[in-house]
Amino acid sequence: MAIFRLFVTSILLLLGCMSIGEASYASYKDPRKPLNVRIRDLMSRMTLAEKIGQMAQIDRVLSTPDVVKSYFI
């Protein structure tokens, strides 16, 4: 029973490490990639609200941490 438990724990640990390694790669951060590939990757990861927030222009006087966080500015 102890060997089985060790085997299952090892497999779960291995699968967890593999998924973390794959999830952390973002091609938009890779300077070796062409610019159009990097832009397409970044835009595909952003939500519509984040895209709108990046296009919004607000006065710096009105920008509080809550506004910046809420509207993705």
TrEMBL record:
Q: What is this protein called?
A: beta-glucosidase
Kindly give the InterPro entries that the UniProt entry links to this protein. Cellulose_Degrad_GH3 (IPR051915), GH (IPR017853), Glyco_hydro_3_N_sf (IPR036962)
Keyword terms, alphabetized: Glycosidase, Hydrolase, Signal
Its taxonomic path starts at: Eukaryota, Viridiplantae, Streptophyta, Embryophyta, Tracheophyta
- What family is it from? Belongs to the glycosyl hydrolase 3 family.
GO BP of this protein: glucan catabolic process
Does the entry feature the keyword 4Fe-4S, yes or no? Answer: no
EC number(s) reported in the record: 3.2.1.21
Kindly report, in one word, the top-level EC class recorded for this enzyme.
hydrolase
**Secretion signal: which residues?**
1-23
The yes or no answer to whether the keyword Signal is present is: yes
What is the reaction catalyzed? Hydrolysis of terminal, non-reducing beta-D-glucosyl residues with release of beta-D-glucose
Molecular-function GO term, any one:
beta-glucosidase activity
